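User: Is it possible to get a 3D structure for a protein together with its bound compound? The compound here is nicotinamide-adenine-dinucleotide. I've pasted both below.
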Amino acid sequence: MDRIQNYIGGALVAPVGGAYLDNYEPATGHVYSHTPASDARDVDAAVAEAREAFPGWAATPAGERARLLLRLADLIEANLEALAEAESTDNGKPVWLARQVDIPRAASNFRFFAHAVTQFASEAHAMGETALNYTLRQPHGVAGCISPWNLPLYLFTWKIAPALAAGNTVVGKPSEVTPLTAYRLSQLCLEAGFPPGMLNVIHGTGPEAGAALVAHRDVPVLSFTGGTKTGAALARTAAPLFKKLSLELGGKNPTIIFADCAYEAMLETTLRSSFANQGEICLCGSRIFVERPIYDRFRDDFVARVEALRVGDPRCDDSRLGAIVSRPHLDKILSYINLAQEEGGTILTGGARVHVEGRCRDGWFVAPTVIEGLAPDCRTNQEEIFGPVVTLMPFDEEEEALAWANGTPYGLAAVLWTENLTRAHRLAARLQAGIVWINCWMLRDLRTPFGGTKQSGVGREGGVEALRFFTEPKNVCIKLS
Ligand code: NAD
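Assistant: Yes, that's possible. Here is the predicted structure of the complex:
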């Protein structure tokens, strides 16, 4: 059985305390590897190595930093199949999805920020003939990068790539629920010839390894993606230490469908925006508001399409949904389905576990679930479920849909379906979300600002925003006469 190792100072090492966590394959429900249960001692060692490597890496010309990151991108692509299989085994998502989305995107993250840093510029402010100000953008030092389990390599690299490109060294902590591809990445870093200490990867739980990284006095900048409660806990530790903090948190995203939409495209995309990756994407739309004239037609067509989605072994190409990431998360999703019924909701389809035959007979599968008849302010419609569960609600007026869409503590993404251009712009400006997709979903340009408002986060990732986050602006003022 595979024993995952930490990556510290350019070497793969066991945790100091010698303790390991069980790592489960969601599709079978069985332990298939062991993950270091690292603690503060491992974090200390990683931060010390990262600190030592920092001056050399920060002084490395941007073009040379880019060259190393591009080499890693090439290696990710060369290992596409093995990484896709690892991601699927670890997370439960279909292999085809990891092959098409997760792993290519991890390579793109390195490629994108490698190129971006060679184009990164800072500002100058001339004061006539009196003085000239220019802004230096210098890396902070050791960056802490903490990521969740839903898009494991994709989101881990989304942080690491800009942090390294900007000249920081990094201590990364992937989710203990899905550590495997971060471990494979550290093996590829050795092959790429990364300088020791430039990137370090510590495996372990949030409360042990994660908290030690957050509290570490030699880590001045933290980039975190995960749940809103965890983000609040991080902020409580980081704020009195005056750390720079980026928080990408939970969501409860609305999909608003008007009667004048391009119906087929909407239906097809709404199926994906509801259930891609078992609904375990922070950007999935879980509350679907449909204009009343097409509500019945949409409900019937949507339910028919959902019933045709095959839930099964993630290794099979015809499995549209794979397994739920963990037993506790499965229980959480099922408890919300129960709650929805207690709150008066009607399950139109799904609503229960799916039992898959063969090697997956003990796996954690849930049928894609569609619920109607709930009020917009009930708990089911207010709290993040993060699984294959959506609710349908008819609306009569644009203002009503907008109020419901904005009526949660979250504000990550929103999807709008209409052919009315004026309405699209009007609503886009008023939706409380960091990202608004009009007549599409998950169409991503890595240059755009990415992040949430309200309890969905603080700060923005992506493009120049990420490079700005991972650098400290310093103004230099020169008197000219
Ligand atoms: P989580 O908050 O439980 O864990 C995220 C990471 O934080 C893990 O690596 C975990 O070990 C670590 N962690 C946990 N407690 C910690 C602590 N006290 N100190 C430091 N680190 C700690 O989240 P999860 O269950 O892994 O992921 C699901 C959540 O992530 C959902 O809420 C989802 O919406 C959110 N998410 C948000 C985005 C986004 O871009 N906004 C993207 C993906 C997922």
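The longest strand covers residues 131-139. The chain has 14 helices and 23 strands.
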